[in-house]
Every structure is written in C-alpha cells, then in structure tokens.
Amino acid sequence: MNNKLPASGRWSLLTLSILVPLLATSSADARELECGRCHEDVVVDSPVHQDQTCVACHSNVTERRHRDALTHLGSDAICVQCHRLADKNVTRSVHHGAASCSDCHGPGHGIHSTTDKNSEVAPVNQIAVCGSCHDDPPELVEGFVGSVHGRGLLRSGLASAPSCSACHGNHRMFAISDGRAPTSNEHAPEMCGRCHVGVLDTWSVESAHGVAWKAGNSEVPVCTTCHSSHNIQDPVTTKRLDFPDQCGDCHGDQYTSYRGSFHGKSTNLGFWTAATCSDCHTTHKVLPADDPRSSIHPENLGETCGNCHENITASFLQFDPHNDPSDPNDNAYVYYVHTFMLWLLLGVFLFFGVHDLLWLQRSWVGAIRGEVRGFKRPLTGPYIRRFSGVFIAMHIVIIITFLSLALTGLPLKFDTAPWAQTLMNLLGGVDSARVIHRIAAVGTFGYLAGHLIHLFIRAIVKQEGGLFWGPHSMVPQWQDLKDMAANVRYFLYLGPPAEGDRWAYWEKFDYFAVFWGVMIIGLSGLMLWLPTFFASFLPGWTINAAQVVHSEEALLATGFIFVFHFFHTDLRPESFPLDPVVFTGRMPLERFKEERPREYQRMVANGTLEDAICPAPTKEEMGWVYVFGFTALSIGLTLAVAIFWALLSR
To answer: Domain of 408: which CATH number?
Structure first.
C-alpha cells in the first residue's frame, strides 16, 4: 500500500498545522479583548504573570458561568493550576485553611517574584504581611522590628539579615510546638546555625547544653531560650544585664545566691561592668566545674577571675560567689557569722523597740498631765555650755558621712525594693554611688581617727581624769543599770524617773553603737573594697563573711539611728521637733536642771557652774541649725520608711 499522501494532501496538513495554533491564539486574544470590554479598570502589572492571558488563570469562565465563576473557583484553586508543589506544602502547614495565596502574595494582578523587592513576600515586606495576622502579642512584630535582625534588614538594608520566612519557612510552615518546625527546640540550633555557623559548632561540641541537645534532649536551653525569638538584641550592648534572669529560669538556686551578692545586686540596679553569669561561665562553652575545659574549673578559675580582679591569689579563689549564708552546709563559718548578726540585730531592735514604746507613751501621758515641759521649754534666758566646738564639728561630720553612706548603701542592700532604682538613678547610678560611698567611708575613718587622737591628747598629754570612769565617762557603769531600771519603773507608772547625769545610759549606748558600727562596718567594708589584698593573708570565705557583716551591721546602724537615736534626741515630746543642743553646744539652764539634776548639783558644789554659763544662740545661729537639722532629720526618717517598705515588700 502506498502511504504517501498526494501533494495536495501534504499541503493541506501543513496548512492545518500552522492555522490551528493561530486560530487558537486568535480565539484567546479575542476572549482577552472580550474581558477588556468590561474589565477595562483592571490593570495587570504583575511581572511574573505578564505573559499570561486572563483565561490562563480564569480558566472556568464561560459565557454561561461567567457571572459566578470566581465564586466557584477561589484564588487558591486558580493558583494551584500552575503551583502544585506549593499548594501541596501549604496543605501540610499551619496556614492550610487559614490563609490564601493572595493573603500573602497579594492579588494575582499585582504579584511579583519573591526575589523582587516589590513583592509582598520580599524579605523587607514580610514583617508587614505576616504582622497583619500575627500581631498578638504585639511583641511578635514590634519585637522583630526593634531586634538586631529587624534593624539589620529594615534599617540597614542587609539582604543577609533574617526575615520571617528565613526562620519559619515559607509554604511548609509548622507551629513552634511541632517538632518538625525549624523554630522548635529540636531544630532551633540548626536554624540559627545556618547563619551563626561558628557559634553552633562551639555550642554543640563544647557546651553542656549543646552536647545534651545533640544527644536528643529537646528540653535543654537552645538559642531561642536565651536569646528569645523575635526581640533578639546584641548581647554585648543591650542584653548583658538580662543574662542572670534568663539563666535563673533553670538555675533557681544559683540565681538566688547570685542576686544576694554584690555582683547580682549591682547588675540588678544597672551596673554594667559587674560580673554576670556569662562573665564567669562563658556564653556558649558552659560546662560543669569538674570539666577541665570549664572556665570555672579550679585550674582555670584564676584566669576567669583575673579578667576583672588583679593580683589573684589561691586564697581569693576560695571566695564563693554563690554562697548562701543561711545554709550551714554551704560554709559553716559564714553561717555562724550570719546567725550572730541576725540575733544581734533582732535583739537590739526588740530591746529598744519595747523600751522606746514604753517611754513614748509615758512621755505623752506626762505631757498631758503637765509632768514634762514638752513644747514649752524656754528658748531665752541663761544657757549652759554642753559641748565644745570640736564635738559640734565632729557631730556634723558624722551626720554628713552617715547619711551619705546610708543613701548610697541602702539601695544596694534592698536592690529589689520599689524605690531602690529611683534612688540609685538620682545618685547617678551604681558607679557614681560607689564613689560617694567610698568618699564617705574615708570621712568616717577620718572622724574616728580624729576622735581617738582627741582622746589620746586629753588622757595622756593633758592628763585629764575621769575619761574612762566616773560621771564624765562614756564607759557603762553600775549606775547606768540602776538608772535604766528606775526609768522602766517610771514608764510603768511605778516610780519617779531616774535623775539624769552628764551622760544617760541610752546616750552611752548610742555612742558605743556608733563606735562599734564604725569599726565593724569599716573593717568589713575595707575587705569588700580591697578583696584581693585581704585574701592575700586571710582565707577566701572571710570575704563572704565580710559581705554578711557589712550588710547586716549597716542595717542595724541605719535602723537604730533613724528610729531609736532620732527618738532619744529629737522626737520624744520633751525635745520635739528638734533638739539643737548638739549643733549649738548650748542648752537652756532651766532645762539642764530638770534633765540632768545630778550634774547640775555637782557643778554647783564644785563651783564650775558659773564658768559654764553662756549667752543664748542668736537667731542666725538657730536659723542654720534648723535648716541643717531638719534636712538631716527628714532624710533619715525617709530612709527609715524606705527600710520598712523594703522589708515588707520582700
């Protein structure tokens, strides 16, 4: 059989092969023109779809079904005609049924390539598109915009900076709780490691966290645990002081002991240079202390501590930055010191609390009955000299240095109190407060030395008697116990008050409280100021003990002065609202006779009373006395309220 077509047939076939496509194209073009007759306002500016005809996407549009075509065929069904793989991935993602193609990519007539910066899903635009749905909580969008990633992408224009899809994926996106998600604990290190390659290598091999993660433990901290997910900040410049809080989420006991140390208290108040967890334990090489590679292994501890402290000694390395003073199993010596200081504080406050409350109620009753003069003491008439200029000047120095120490020390003592940060900010921050504290400490040592020199001159050079015994001495004596017993009976309405002498028993206690406090607080403060020096000849645990002593003794001193001493001198009805005698050195003779009858009688008997008579203070003198006195009193009482506030808010 001859299968060859005749020439006429071959020409007919060739003609058909050319005309059919042309006719089809003409038909499509005709239909395209037909769409334009009604949809002339539709502008197709999609670079990726510019070669497509209307019917390529709207393939089900016929004359019969034109009116409701798009109702029966949604945008996803249109897109799937070409983008089948993408549709397959979306059906397996969290977006299946929740978001359509156009929700993310925009309407079909304006879709741009994902590599085009004008695309809805271009890296610089993703946060706006994704944020239109994922705006709760606000930290998701706001956190990313303000993060180091967001600033790099949106402000600096770094094309390599991560966008939403860089971490979460694109079409096949899973919930974070799903182990298949790149952002899950199972895969977060790998996700971050795509950019932070060196960190991942170090963390996964040389960190206890990373080794456990590689072994399949998805519960250990990973990148997003410490650095967060959206609000990621540069840890060197912005997040440094947050490290303890992040580590404390897992290491609660260590966090508590750290916050009780100077490092923890000062960083809590914004002291940038104090040590945080990463300074000692490193960031991505965190290993237990028994690992020879660990930064806190005994062989490496000197180098670690030496980053901040000079002249490191073996004894200094015995200092425990995580010591718990209340735990006898931690360090018995520090525990005993802590227990002693606690009972000392409670004992003093309990004794004088009861004593002064009894005194206060008895003074009120006495003022009502007219037994005490209260506000009616005379401010004119003969005055008697009580103190010389040396004692006046010394007391002023004591007030200034003590208030300075209290103002700068109490915020650190009660760093979590609601007022601590505000007060520290007013002082210029921890660094500034530390300078003020040390200047005041030097002033404290100065007046202590001056007082001892003054006593030496009076006792040795001038051979002045009665300094260490007798009615003029500050040394407690049997008469003081008898006076205290008499006053207690008076407070309980069982007898008359004790007859006052040169020094009352509570004044002697105030004196030795200051003397004891300066010695104890001063020595412990020096140990904290110069820890490596003292550790050169003392065991390291003494630095822990010094911290306990300094903190508790400071609380004892400030609490006693601002509550009990202020009551003894200024706030009891007999001297309220301010006793100016310590600033002027003089007091009315009539008041002197009432309050110190034994000294008055002795001065009359030995003929020294006339020599002690002096004129009353001038109005100018009383003016500065009240300005300075009320200022000091106000500061002290405010700090007393702050102490109680801090104790109650713990």
So the answer is: 1.20.950.20
